[in-house]
Predict the structure of Putative pyridoxal-dependent aspartate 1-decarboxylase.
Amino acid sequence: MLQIHPVNSSIETWNPSIEGTILSLFDPSPQAENWEKNVDQQILKIAYQFLRQIEASSDIELPDLMAQFQEFHLPDDASSFDTYLESLTKTLIPHSIHTSSPRFIGHMTSALPHFMRPLAKLMTALNQNLVKTETAKAFTPYERQALGILHRSLYQFPDEFYDYHLQNSHSTLGMVVSGGTSANFTAIWCARNSSLGPKGDFKGIEKEGLAAALEFYGYQGQVIIGSSLMHYSFEKAADLLGIGSQGLIKIPASRHNRIDLDCLRETVAECRAQKQHIIAIVGIAGTTDSGGIDPIEEMAAIAQAAGVHFHVDAAWGGPLIFSQQHRHKLAGIEQADSVTIDAHKQLYAPMGIGMVMFQNPQLAKAIEKHACYTVREGSADLGQRSLEGSRPAMSLFLHAGLHAIGLKGYEFLIDEGIRKTQYMAEQVRLSPEFELLAEPEINLLIYRYIPEQLREFVAKGELTETQNQAIDLVNEQLQKAQRHAGKTFIARTITQTTRYGPMAIVALRAALANPLTTEADIDAVLDDQIALATQLNLGGSQF
Amino acid sequence: MLQIHPVNSSIETWNPSIEGTILSLFDPSPQAENWEKNVDQQILKIAYQFLRQIEASSDIELPDLMAQFQEFHLPDDASSFDTYLESLTKTLIPHSIHTSSPRFIGHMTSALPHFMRPLAKLMTALNQNLVKTETAKAFTPYERQALGILHRSLYQFPDEFYDYHLQNSHSTLGMVVSGGTSANFTAIWCARNSSLGPKGDFKGIEKEGLAAALEFYGYQGQVIIGSSLMHYSFEKAADLLGIGSQGLIKIPASRHNRIDLDCLRETVAECRAQKQHIIAIVGIAGTTDSGGIDPIEEMAAIAQAAGVHFHVDAAWGGPLIFSQQHRHKLAGIEQADSVTIDAHKQLYAPMGIGMVMFQNPQLAKAIEKHACYTVREGSADLGQRSLEGSRPAMSLFLHAGLHAIGLKGYEFLIDEGIRKTQYMAEQVRLSPEFELLAEPEINLLIYRYIPEQLREFVAKGELTETQNQAIDLVNEQLQKAQRHAGKTFIARTITQTTRYGPMAIVALRAALANPLTTEADIDAVLDDQIALATQLNLGGSQF
């Protein structure tokens, strides 16, 4: 349990009336500054106690936690913040997940650079609203700069291109959004609107809607095509945009977790023959479950030949562009019409920032909107072309990362993550307790635990479906037990691209992005799994 | 210009190699804690210097600012954060908008309670991902609690309702989203999907898409109905969801900026006669341009009679529920199927948090999605039913506000904002230089400056269209001049609901939510406008 020392200057003591209390909460007085300085020190202490935890989480059960948050009455009278903070240190913080722990290697989180924390406070102190220049003056060109730097790293256009577009308010090199899901929505939205735009008497899908657009253009329906490993945000996009999730065509992925190109070509031809409008072809640079990378160059060529928008979801894998050793894996990404990259993943920004980048700076005009009270036509307001309206200055984290981590820093982080994943793969390969389910492409790894009685069958590659199902159950139990114990953490997924063919198999998934994770931490995670499996006698009786 | 004192312990001095540099950036070592403590103190100083600025902004021109952000090369080698922070204090911070200034009363921003800033740092230190319990254990019931408290304040269901639903993972009382735009999207998405759901052989719009849904249900098209003053996010929603912005039917608003109920009834009847599917009727509780509130109770009755989803956009006005004096203005809001409220507006949270609330805890099932690697069916994962995927623990600000401001605190804030708006309206009414364009309903005010030569015509209500257009130009110039000078700030909009009939009129708009704004500040803003208009000789020659 974290300890917290109460400070002496509590807010209520400044003034007893509600007016005084509230005004003193907002007034940037010297007393307030002094109060905040004390609270800053408390938060710093709490933060570092939290950040130093090696365990993945506490071992409290979720229902027990829920029982502590049952009150639903709004208090008439406020607590002092000191009292409130104390309650957070009792109920909330000790049972938060140690996403920065070197042994929490299951999800796409990591420790963050120290400077991100003070910047979060600065962002909130400035409290800009990026929707328009009237509420975010300098932040508008500043955010555009960060996006321009990222655009150039990705697309490598000549300098004149950036001289012209970087600060040109008619151009959109990219957008800062709340995360990869919104980035994917935005890309597909732009693709849909630009491919079903105004023509002759037809005012475009934006004005007349999807059904009218299909009728005008003579299409029988509309689809998005990608591999079966597309992120679930594309299900959401297909639903949200009126396409329907049946319109999300999932091409089988090969054992390397890459899309089957022949099948993609056939599907494109079939859709065209059946007058199904292809809104976009989606390539993946780092599948969520195993880090597979689609053959981007070939997909770009197929999309180009078909005149279809090509989007690459590089939410996870995008920062490979910073690695001399690994950027070849993304070859062809510069041919994508749009690219999703998350800053809160491998650019090491705090949760809540993703980007969508556009090859053509005019593409986002397809979703442009105006309002007389805020984003005006012809202005430099970033909110003219964006999914979200009012939004915070999260670009502070992106811009700061690009400058205070730099190319070489990001290269090191990417290279190290992949190197450590190779190490973990090797450990898994060498341990009879585990089976490697796919050769890792980047820094995501899928494997599973094998109960002792079945190891010889695995070695021979002779597992029956029933045996596989039993192993599934064991791995599900193991992952839950490990999560509950809280000492280490690995995620769980289902894979259909193993040597066992299209059979759905429960897999353990590691994500190795935290630079603080050492080989010893990886060993500890695997050892923890072996110990838990033994202790629970997992698979000990059913065979 | 803000001054910044360099700290001695710079990150690079810890280790010269790239490995050492990067690891030391992430390692929560005692040196790091000490470094961060120093940076915290610098940020606090920067923050308070910024927060104490009375002026609305610097007077730099946007093109001059853009010229400072022209670089588009990613640096090979990182700057130290100290150097980077110094650059921010030169180019970025001095030219950020003083959104917390008591004289920046044009947009929907305010000073924030002090405790929001340390909390921002805490949020980033914990860096939870609310998409699932595996990355946000205690935060899951904690966020649900904050939403439950808000739900009860709004809908006032009996205790048993909350005992059952508050922590029930099958129920969705509300969602935390990035802002009002996403909240409105989510509400319309739920309304669309639940009204065009699975039936017989039809698998529902979610699976089969919008065109198939219209065909199956025998509709000719689809519409959303609200007043002409709906926020522009509904234009986006209509486009995004495949409805098309032509499907957004805008009923004229009366002089009180309320929807014309007769016209609404006729439109509903007409749509039904023409087999146009009405996805939702939208009521507004606080229009963005003038704070008008629709007759919510009557609209709810119309929607209910027609069996149509009723959504209330209370992004701005929602917190009136906390005021005994003013909550009657929202009478009927508890009959809304869904309600949008922004926490970053009148709940005084930092930018980036809005909520959508649902009367029926099962409604959001209409947009439910799962993924084997993350949000699993039957889990408590909040990401099962949400627009966004990975997202930060912004609910920290909502929960803290509810507890450390409390009911009485929010009531005071709402009451004071409205009281000061009445004061400002009275000053405008008494000044021959200005014309009040609408009696304020809440704490938004629209008015305009009248050049001297035209004041007698205004007094008689005898302005010609040409004279009105000349006044429009004057007010546009005045608002731009005021914004540029930066001493005070008022926003600008276009209104069509004045005594001049449906003519579009340029208006100045004040938003009075900042508790630090005094009557003297209001006087200063109006005096600044009069002085600027005189100085610029606005309207001095054209009449």
Q: What stands out?
A: The domain at 415-536 of chain B is CATH 3.90.1150.10 (Aspartate Aminotransferase, domain 1).
